[in-house]
Design goal:
Blueprint (H helix, E strand, L loop, with lengths): L1 E2 L6 H5 L3 E5 L2 E6 L6 E3 L4 E2 L1 H19 L7 E9 L8 E10 L3 E9 L8 E8 L5
Antiparallel strand pairs: 1-2, 2-3, 3-7, 4-5, 6-9, 7-8, 8-9
Length: about 130
């Protein structure tokens, strides 16, 4: 089932991110486009687009688990680049490793051909929407 979870984020629309929800798990796809190339000599995907994919995947996962009027806000985000992103589609999934009343800790990974060989990973904390 495809969900428009990231439609409120202009950069997600620019990257043409697509979400697929299966139960309580989200897979986000970033379709390849030439504009995503950061180093045309290799060619390799731009690290910023990969980081944005991971962050927005984490946001979508938290928003699905903790529905609120506003999206969760990042407190801190760390991205590790593990492999060169090749000129092809990128997939990402996130999982909430721990959540309290106000903060959620999230881990995410992005891969291309094999999920077991991620090209980048993210660790982040998000501020959950406060009940008003």
């Amino acid at each position: 089932m495809t969900e428009p979870l990231l439609d409120r984020l202009p950069y997600a629309r620019f990257l043409d991110l697509r979400t697929l929800v299966s139960g309580d798990e989200i897979t986000v796809t970033m379709p390849f486009r030439d504009q995503l190339i950061g180093n045309p000599m290799i060619p390799a995907l731009h690290g910023g687009s990969t980081a944005a994919l991971l962050e927005m995947t984490a946001i979508a996962q938290v928003a699905l688990a903790f529905p609120a009027a506003r999206l969760p806000r990042p407190i801190n985000v760390t991205v590790a680049y593990l492999r060169t992103g090749r000129p092809q589609d990128v997939f990402a999934r996130a999982r909430i490793s721990r959540a309290g009343r106000r903060v959620a800790h999230v881990l995410a990974e992005a891969w291309q051909e094999e999920r077991g060989q991620p090209i980048a990973s993210l660790t982040a904390h998000f501020l959950l929407a406060e009940d008003s």
